[in-house]
What we know:
The protein is of the alpha/beta class.
Amino acid sequence: MLTKRIIPCLDIKDGRTVKGVNFVGLRDAGDPVELGASYAHQGADELVFLDISATDEKRKTFAGLVRQIARHVNIPFTVGGGIGSVEDVDPLLEAGADKVSINSAAVKNPHLIDALANAFGSQFVVVAIDARKVGNQWTVHTHGGARPTEKKLFAWAKEAQERGAGEILFTSMDHDGTKNGFAIDPLAKLHQLLAIPVIASGGAGHPQHFADAFLLGHADAALAASLFHFGELTIPDLKKILHRQGIATRATYEN
């Protein structure tokens, strides 16, 4: 089995890490720079920082915060929120980001994926997809999950790959913050459909949920937030449990 990645996600609003359930009911979870440094020390494989209000507030992700993060973190990290052009990415790269995540802007203008991939390389471009099941279809939502679109999860993920995305970050809005487990069936279908890595997001509440995402959903990485933010599970403990099930992770863990 290829090594799997454990990725803490820090949703940032007004300079603070926040977390909610099903994208609403946000509560404070701490300073993003301090949390990021702690996760890097614990053995996280990567980090994701999402400025969740940037798109709604029609502003850019704060490069200053990215620079602070880069000074305190020694593992790859992805930054998202408010990125709408190639020009928006240059300050984030200069500040130390390793990848960028695009979501609402890519849905509005799919050519943005092509432009970023051509300018920086596919390995730099993560396309985040927030979707929930409406009837029997997984429907893509934008603006922090507030706006349903005409796009469907699987067709949009495939188009993103064809346009040059290097990874897909799939969040099930129905599972987000519930701690009832990841959306396994769509993860497995995305794995069958795509040739690029898929990151599972939404629903982590127990170590077995990560194992299920990897073994049943065939995810390449699993992302979680509140489980880590509020001290319910540490990354070293999670990696030990996964190791016992034969699931290899990138970073070492303490015995």
